Amino acid sequence: MDGEDRVRPGKDRWQESYEAIRAYRQAQIEEIFDYARGSGCRMLRLVRHFGDTLDQRRCGHCDECLPGGTVGRTFRAPTKAERRTATDNEAGSLGK
Ligand SMILES: [Zn+2]
After folding, report:
1. Distance in Å, CA 56 to ligand 1 centroid
2. Mean pLDDT of 79-87
3. What is the pLDDT of residue 96?
4. C-alpha 30 to ligand 1 mean position (Å)
5. pLDDT category, 90, cuts 50, 70, 90?
6. Ligand 1 midpoint to CA 28 (Å)
7. Which of 50, 65, 82, 96 sits most deeply, having the most CB atoms within 10 A of its CB?
8. C-alpha 27 – ligand 1 centre gap (Å)
9. pTM recorded for the entire structure
10. What is the largest CA-CA distance in the chain?
11. Could you tell me the distance, in angstroms and rounded to a whole number, from the CA of residue 24 to the centre of ligand 1?
């Protein structure tokens, strides 16, 4: 693709660089999944990812260090209005 977004035939051996980019992107995606599924301090993992292997201190604030203090894992019962809206939406989507 050129600077004006025109697609032109590539040079010979384009597959090699294409496959290298694809493998790199796939490795990045796997790394993100590993981060999401992994255990241990999130901040410490990020710090290590960016090259600081000497810092061993847990942050004390992330969902792994302080599970009870995170918003992402906190749930509450729906309010009556929220429950009514959900019920209305469900009924609407079923064509009732
Ligand atoms: Zn942490």
Report:
1. 11
2. 89
3. 46
4. 21
5. confident
6. 22
7. 65
8. 24
9. 0.53
10. 64
11. 28
